[in-house]
Design brief:
Elements lengths: L1 E7 L2 H13 L3 E7 L11 H11 L10 E7 L8 H15 L6 E6 L6 E7 L13 H16 L25 H15 L5 H9 L3 E10 L2 E11 L5 E7 H4 L5 H17 L3 H14 L3 H10 L2 E7 L5 E8 L4 E4 H4 L5 H19 L7 H17 L3 H5 L28
Helix pairs in contact: 3-4
Length: 415
């Protein structure tokens, strides 16, 4: 079981996020502590806000008084509502929030059922709840709960497992729900800085996205359309407006996220790990398929965009470990589309040249061809020359020594 803890200033924002899930039929309240739970089960942000506010003093010094926790069991752990409730309550008690007001929600918007807990980080006197070594203590608590309830251990899960969402399948129907169950989690988890990077991320799950702009009755509009894609990457079915899925999937929210992502990526130097892995993969591989396998083993997906002539014009790396999407050019000029286009093409040419049988009559001609390939690889001032291994040279006779140029005799008077 994996626990994720986030803190913030907006109690309304944390409650609104869960209410949206409840309204869509993808969540429900399992339990409440020191918060009145409506008898009819109808969740109301206003009523919950009042209960939380009655608990909080008028003055407190904590900048981020709200805590939002998600507890994520392994997909193979099948738990009842009673078990999920007990796990949530025990977790909060052991973490030091047992006497705080909180709400426990069960989410079913993705294949893996999990719970969200919203609470306060200040007590009724305005004193901050002890958060010393909170993440370390949280891990110890989840390990204890795993043993008690016989759950799959978090250490046995592949890191970043929760990015493995279910791709959209046209044959299953209800495309709106399928798209919603992918787009919203991805927007929460990943950082990207352009629509192109967002489009590359969604393509992994058979989803297309496009901006629409225009004017109706003198009013300008700017929106987002999501579409299901078939196996060939073509749109299938009627596009879905972002407004149908919710504000968090609209252009305003996405533009805000792109701006914030740029700051986080820069401050936390998230590009460094991706650049290092990609560089190492280039050194160890010579074909596109091997390159993809090498990256995949390190939790990175490669998305290439090609034109009708099969030329690469776009390269995007999706690092699932760091949850970041990066166009190749963001990693540096040695990772641009043009460089990879040459890299894969030359690697293919080298492979084909090695496969051609060589007879004794053509040894001299083949040697000349190999020399040209070697010259081309090592003279390029790009990724090809920096990271490519030495070209494969066939066994052949040593080259003849170069002829010395004969010195021209000068006639006439020499002063």
């Amino acid at each position: 079981m994996v626990a994720r803890i986030s803190t913030g200033q907006s109690l309304y924002g944390a409650l609104a996020y869960n209410q949206e899930k409840v309204d869509e039929g993808h969540a429900k309240i399992l339990a409440a502590n020191l918060v009145l739970q409506p008898e009819d089960g109808q969740f109301s942000i206003g009523d919950c806000m009042k209960d939380f506010q009655r608990w909080m003093p008028s003055h407190y010094r904590t900048e981020k008084p709200v805590i939002h926790i998600s507890l994520n069991p392994h997909p193979d752990d099948v738990l009842t509502d009673e078990q999920l409730t007990a796990i949530g309550e025990e977790y909060m008690q052991k973490l030091g929030y047992g006497n705080q007001p909180y709400l426990i929600f069960k989410h079913e918007d993705i294949d893996r059922r999990h719970i969200h807990i919203v609470s306060l980080r200040v007590d009724s006197t305005g004193k901050k709840i002890n958060d010393s070594n909170e993440y370390r203590r949280s891990k110890a608590i989840t390990e204890e709960l795993e043993q008690k309830y016989g759950l799959h251990p978090a250490e046995g899960q592949k890191k970043g497992e929760d990015w493995q969402l279910t791709p959209v399948d046209n044959d299953k129907g209800n495309l709106k729900k399928q798209i919603n169950n992918v787009v919203k989690p991805l927007l929460k988890m990943y950082r990207f800085q352009s629509m192109g990077e967002f489009r590359a991320l969604l393509s992994l799950y058979n989803i297309g996205v496009e901006e629409v702009k225009g004017e109706v009755n003198g009013c300008n509009y700017h929106g987002i359309l999501y579409s299901a894609l078939n196996k060939d990457g073509k749109k299938n079915g009627t596009p879905i407006k972002s407004s149908v899925l919710g504000k968090s999937t609209g252009i305003a929210a996405i533009e805000k996220q792109m701006q914030q992502s740029g700051t986080v990526i820069k401050d936390k130097k998230l590009k460094e790990r991706t650049r290092r892995v990609v560089s190492a993969a280039i050194q160890r591989t010579r074909t596109e398929s091997d390159f993809r396998k090498e990256l995949s083993a390190q939790g990175i997906d490669l998305v290439l965009r090609r034109n009708e002539d099969n030329r690469i014009y776009g390269v995007t790396f999706i690092d699932h470990r760091n949850r970041v999407v990066l166009n190749g050019s963001r990693l540096g000029k040695d990772f641009s589309a043009n460089v990879f286009n040459e890299y894969f093409r030359n690697a293919k040419e080298d492979f084909l040249s090695v496969q051609q049988p060589i007879s004794a009559d053509h040894t001299e001609r083949k040697s000349s061809s190999d020399d040209k390939v070697a010259t081309k690889d090592t003279s390029s001032g790009s990724l090809l020359s920096l990271f490519s291994p030495d070209p494969v040279l066939l066994d052949r006779e040593p080259p003849l020594p170069k002829k010395r140029r004969k010195k021209r005799r000068r006639y006439g008077r020499q002063d």
